UniProtKB/TrEMBL annotation, chains A, B:
PANTHER family: MARR-FAMILY TRANSCRIPTIONAL REGULATOR, TRANSCRIPTIONAL REGULATOR, MARR FAMILY. Keywords: DNA-binding, Transcription, Transcription regulation. The keyword Transcription regulation applies. Residues 1-23 are annotated as: Disordered. This is Transcriptional regulator.
Length: 177, 177
DNA sequence: CAAAAAAACTTTAAGCTTAAAATATCACCG
DNA sequence: CGGTGATATTTTAAGCTTAAAGTTTTTTTG
């Protein structure tokens, strides 16, 4: 949630760019507004899905996300792999896994070949619970985007793909100024 | 960060839709993939901006966001107004404001006409600090999107605007199933 | 006006999240 | 084999975030 103006700067536009007589650096309000709108969209969707997950299944989004990662990997996955895929810190995964194990939805076992590594997988109860949640989740998302035509969905996918590539390029070059 | 497969489901596609003989509810993998890609993009950008904010200015993103809301409102704003604009809970704003006041970047004062309400505004130091950060922030965002052509930026803005409208419609109707 | 409802804000408890430091184990190299 | 560096994970401290309950003040309404 949040990050700067969100709704405000997103709705209004206030291009007082001409008031900017500063030297070298150009006006990049368009990119800024795009970022804020992107964030607003994501926040709105995330908030709604989180709300429904709690209300309907009494589960948090991070736990659901973690289970989703494990769904198609019956043999399990290491904590490090989970961390990479979920794009969150190692310590975060440790905590989430602990709680899900306590709930009986996950099981962990030490790797036979590497005693540092721990494999995590869904229990039978976990698989059952996830299947039920995933079905509804998919419907919720579909409804959230229901006003977009198929072509618009596709166009958005493509453009977001380009944006993703641009971000990746930007963050991987220029590690420092 | 996170929400489901993110990178995984986003990258792969696995349309095993035909394996879905279940009755009534249609296949909505396209919407699901769109949501995951949207989330991936936002997460990548947010993580990078957060990292730079910490490294360059030793500030958190939520604090920067809050300051951004106050930038163009010298007379200040109530905590409730801040909460609405930032799309976060009231209690969250209370805590952020407390910390920023402690740092000397914000000041609060009780409303003259409503003793429940508190106005918050940037101090001189806060305005100075924000101006410096905002300039660089704008450049960071511009660079993240640098590979998109102007037309693509605009197309993305438009499509995200439609998505936002769709989400708003979906969350405001159908409060319950 | 007095009671009831609403509004603005704070507090609390729980959980999420991260960065950084600490542990433990493994892999490699001489 | 012994040391060095890398890897996998956990722990810690701090901060973010929310929902729900609580406080104070204002507004509405009978």
């Amino acid at each position: 949630m949040s990050v700067e103006a969100a709704e405000t700067l997103d709705a209004e536009v206030h291009l007082d760019s001409e008031s900017r007589a500063h030297g070298d650096h150009a006006d990049h309000k368009a990119e800024l507004r795009l970022w804020l709108r992107l964030l607003t969209c994501t926040t709105m969707i995330e908030t709604e899905i989180r709300r429904r997950m709690r209300e309907r299944f009494d589960i948090t989004l991070p736990r659901f996300d973690l289970m989703a990662q494990l769904e198609r990997t019956p043999e399990g996955m290491t904590l490090g792999e989970l961390s990479k895929r979920m794009m969150v810190s190692n310590g975060n995964v440790t905590g989430l896994v602990d709680r899900l194990v306590t709930e009986g939805l996950l099981q962990r076992r030490q790797s036979d070949t590497d005693r540092r590594a721990h494999y995590v997988s869904l229990t039978a109860a976990g698989r059952r619970a996830f299947a039920a949640m995933a079905d509804e989740h998919e419907d919720w998302v579909a409804d959230l985007f229901a006003d977009l035509a198929p072509g618009e969905l596709e166009a958005l996918m493509t453009l977001l793909g380009k944006a993703k590539a641009s971000v990746r390029r930007s963050t991987q070059n220029a590690v420092e100024t």
